[in-house]
Amino acid sequence: MKEFRGGIIRMFEQGKSGYKIAQDMNLHARTVNRIIKRYQEKQEATATDKEAKYQEFTRFERDGLLNLEHLGGGSMLEAPPVD
What we know:
Strand content: 15-25%
CATH class of the domain at 2-51: Mainly Alpha
Subcellular location: Nucleus
Protein name: Transposase
Oligomer: single chain
Structural class: alpha+beta
GO cellular component, one term: nucleus
Organism: Acrobeloides nanus
Helix content: 55-70%
Strand order of the largest sheet: 1-2-3
Radius of gyration: 23 Å
Number of helices: 3
Order of helices and strands: HHHEEE
CATH topology of the domain at 2-51: Arc Repressor Mutant, subunit A
InterPro entries: Homeodomain-like_sf, WH-like_DNA-bd_sf
CATH architecture of the domain at 2-51: Orthogonal Bundle
Largest sheet: 3 strands, antiparallel
Number of strands: 3
């Protein structure tokens, strides 16, 4: 089945249904849909990891300002809260 995965995913990304892919490739529909499901789960996990990465930053005070620095680069200065 490994040799079919790339083709199944490519056809799915082109908009074909799992049922139609199974017919075209002469495979069982459950097998095709399982491959598609795993692919989608992997894509969702990758997207979640990327979102978490963009939320990571460090905080420290410099020159009386709170500096928020993103671990991926870039920073932003904020004025301290006024009492």
